Amino acid sequence: MRFATDTGGTFTDLVVEEDDGTITLHKAATTPSDPVAGVLDALRVAADARGLTLADLLARGDSFIHGTTHAINAIIQGRTARTALIVTAGHRDMLLFREGGRAEPFNHAHAYPQPYVPRALTFEVPERIMAGGKVLTALDEAATEQVLEAIAQADVEAIAVALLWSTVNPVHENRIGAMIAARFPGTPFSLSHSVNPTLREFRRASSAAIDASLKPLMGAYLGSLEARLAEAGFAGRVMVLTSAGGMVDAREVAAQPISAINSGPSMAPVAGRHYALREGGFDNAIIADTGGTTYDISIIADGRVAMTRDLWIGEPYRGHLAGYPSVEVKSVGAGGGSIARVDASGLLHVGPQSAGAMPGPVCYQRGGTLPTVTDACVVLGYLDPDFFLGGKMQLDAEGARRAIEEHIAAPLGVSIEEAAWSIVDLATEAMVQAIQDLVVNQGIDPARAVLIGGGGAAGLNSTFIARRLGCPRLLIPETGAAMSAAGAMMSDITAEFAATVHSNTARFDSDAVGAAVAGLAARAAQFIARSGRPGETHFIAEARYEGQAWEIDVPLPNTDFASDRAIADFRKRFEAEHLRLFTIVDPASDIELIGLRARVQCSARDGASDFRLAMHQAERREAGTREVYFAGSGWCSTAVWRLEAIGPDLKIDGPAIIESDFTTIVVDPASCFWRSAPGAILIEERSQ
Q: What does pTM read for this prediction?
């Protein structure tokens, strides 16, 4: 038995995989002050559903997979450790000057962003290594000792080191690391060449600083998770999801916590790719994961999960650049808990502020007083107050109506229903705009892609989103309500290793590139051995046209560059990828190889699994009807279907409401739906 959890802003999702390969879903409220408590609560819900004690359930498990936003929340909320940064003399302002770029070039109303580590805690050491790896100025150890003494007086809790060209020759960074360990036993530190061996100094320094600042917090958090699971009766392996769409042992994440910044959201596209292929062989898909706090969007292009090294914490150019390999996920502040308000000018706004888990929407009856998207859906009849979470939670419909009337309908001078629809409509528009921004960057035509809705609130407005995007089909998997946790079940044990090596197709240094490949292969083999699972390694080249500012990733099925034919094949692969991304190639220009990466994947499970939801966990309910409000149609008598009661391939016209214990799917009058043989709900526009 395996467990996978995803801690969201409102609910903690749990997926349990039985020994026969079937899975069950469970939810519990997230506890913001103690996320581990929410995880244990979800496990108790699963135990109760089986008539077991928590200890008995955990005793059956052999692995526990955890997705968490604890790291990124700590950065956003300013709860990271007080960190010092050591740099090469003359480069104290790396984090201050950044890389340049502005989201709005002519908007000077925003203050220039502050560096992640303040200048007062940035210290210079005399040393210099050249781009080829030669030591120009040896590390001045006496001066370094004085720097460490100044750091001791600054009362810091972690230290980062980012020296020039340490990715080519890390001798000075390694020596400073040894001096830190001797001078500050037990104080965590991060070396930039180990954390993120990228060519660009700012990204490397930012990565190292973020990683070091998270080590005390994440070490304590993951240690508490492992200890409390063990106390509760779990004796298996604890894994943590990473930003790159895989998982590693919890202790490896504690040693390099920057790898888990985008932990939970990175799993939705993993699940989305699985369902896109299973439910129709779609190579292009838009994955939309709607939670209580955020709306997370990712892309599957040509069957591949879109990745990025531009992982920003906060707004691009105004936030902090992690610069770490990550599944590309765009998040906007629009979810079920997004708060609606009318400003002094009489304009309606929805989000980015969220009611979260506490106090939550007004209808949750936990003290919330401001109307949210969830409250609007209760008013419109989309949610059944008596059957939320399968009847486990009673919603206050009258409270939702009062909140919308007081805060939205009265100020706007409209009916309660019109106010509620406006809230849903505005949230929908924000989601559509976010998707359009991402698909344009990826070169995806929504008219040739399937929209996959995940998250507990996905079904409430995904039909409207698909229509506005022009997507011909909406797919909501049977595990869609917990898609990130389901993706965790499907993910592999993964790691990525990088090396900086520079060469050019006009004068290719096969020996240097071959040595870099061999070094990466050795590190990959060591990781596979540590994982205890069978694995494979895929190589990626970071390359660009000579003089080009930014490189692109080029998959390398062949890493032997000893022959002219192999180098010509590398050029062919680069130009095919460049053409896909930018629609042009430049045959007259040479190609520069900037670096190499090795991505390791080890299967986390024995045998294949269909990841089918066990439907016996919920009591069947006959279809009924209720009044539901749709813009342009008003109140409509709408059929209510229980998800597991819908037979396969039976096409049904809207309007309809499809309910399960974990989600509600709204099908408007202009659409039809059916349930596929593998169990997903498919929705498309009804033919006229």
A: 0.84
